From TrEMBL:
Protein name as catalogued: Metalloregulator ArsR/SmtB family transcription factor
Domain HTH arsR-type: 1-95
Record flagged with keyword DNA-binding: yes
Recorded superkingdom: Bacteria
InterPro entries with a match to the protein in the record: ArsR-like_HTH, HTH_ArsR_DNA-bd_dom, Metal_resp_trans_reg, WH-like_DNA-bd_sf, WH_DNA-bd_sf
Keyword vocabulary terms for this entry: DNA-binding, Transcription, Transcription regulation
Gene3D superfamilies with a match to the protein in the record: Winged helix-like DNA-binding domain superfamily/Winged helix DNA-binding domain
C-alpha cells in the first residue's frame, strides 16, 4: 500500500497526464490569458476546455480571475513553469538518445 505522500504525488502527476492540460499550462507560462485566447490556440470545444481548466483549478495550479466580463487564467506560481521546463529537458535527452539509436539502426542496414 502506498504511503499517503506517494499517493498524493501520483495523483498530482495523473492530473498532469492529459495533453490539453499540459498545453494549457504551457500557454499560461506567457502570462495571464483570457479563455477566448486559450480556445483559439487549442482548437477545442469550449466545454472541453472548461472541464480541463476545472481540473487544473481544483488542483490549485491555475487561478481564474475576471477582467470585466472576460475570465482570465494564470499559473498559480512559478513552480509549475519550472516543472514544465524540467520535463522539456528530460524529454529532449530521451528523444535525442532515441534519435541516436535510430541512426545506429539505420546505419546497420
Amino acid at each position: 500500500m502506498a504511503a499517503p505522500l506517494y499517493q498524493a504525488k501520483a495523483e498530482f502527476f495523473r492530473m498532469l497526464g492529459h495533453p490539453t492540460r499540459i498545453r494549457v499550462l504551457e500557454l499560461l507560462q506567457a502570462g495571464p490569458t483570457p479563455v477566448r485566447d486559450l480556445l483559439a490556440d487549442l482548437d477545442i470545444e469550449p466545454s472541453s476546455l472548461s472541464q480541463q481548466l476545472a481540473v487544473l483549478r481544483r488542483a490549485g495550479i491555475v487561478t481564474a480571475g475576471r477582467e470585466g466580463s472576460t475570465v482570465v487564467y494564470a499559473l498559480a506560481g512559478g513552480d509549475v513553469a519550472d516543472l514544465l521546463r524540467s520535463a522539456r529537458r528530460i524529454l529532449t535527452v530521451l528523444l535525442a538518445e532515441q534519435g541516436t539509436l535510430l541512426a545506429e539502426l539505420r546505419a546497420a542496414d
